From TrEMBL:
CDD domains: Peptidase_M90_mtfA. It comes from the Bacteria. This is Zinc-dependent peptidase. It comes from Azonexus fungiphilus. Pfam families: Peptidase_M90 (PF06167). GO terms for molecular function: aminopeptidase activity; metallopeptidase activity. PANTHER family: MTFA PEPTIDASE, PROTEIN MTFA. One of its GO terms (cellular component) is cytosol.
Amino acid sequence: MGLFDWWRRRPAPIPEALWQRTLASLPFFATLTVDQQKRLKTLSERFLAEKEFTAAGGLELNDEICVAIAAQGCLPILELGLGAYGDWVGIVVYPDEFVVQREIADADGVVHEFADVLAGEAWEGGPLLVSWRDVQMAGGDYNVVIHEFAHKLDMLNGEVDGIPALHSTLTVDRWESVFFAAYDDFCARVDSGEETIIDPYASEAPEEFFAVLSECFFGIPDVVDAEYPALYALLREYFRQDPLARLRAK
């Protein structure tokens, strides 16, 4: 019986050897202080006790998969607390990219069906889906776990619009002023044909800009700060973390 079987019943300690392998898998874990790593471990254990992991597509769940997703997913809420993920339970893990069937109606009301190939997706009022292969590809500006978990943060206050539930130090007016100025500028850069370091997919919609910039905030904070310093400061205040300062301290 794997540890994730026990976690379904009650919190259990993550074995130290597994935890150290998980921390060694991504550079941004190494920038955390010893105290932050300990708190992340405790938060991950609580997360595993509250969430329900399900395998799909023939994948067999194991401790490595569950702990990797928990650790990456809990990093953004290290200072926000587990309540930020309190309105959903399920995590579905596929071995690789997966297909979701879509329907869309055109201007004439004709419904078109198509297959969407995805590495991850967060459903409003439902589970979060990720590809294990893509979880393992995390690094730099790419992190499917942080991306999808950022969508869950965005959903916490209702509409998925790039404006997450804000704590008392932030106002919606301030968020909109800084966030949408950066978003509009980034969209203009992408539309002009510029090859951006930040994934151009961030220009698809405000909610994707928030998710991609959350990935970059933790993975390449120096780029976010250099290109959008006001947005970096806003995200730093929202997440109550400063990945750039941690990076420079190492």
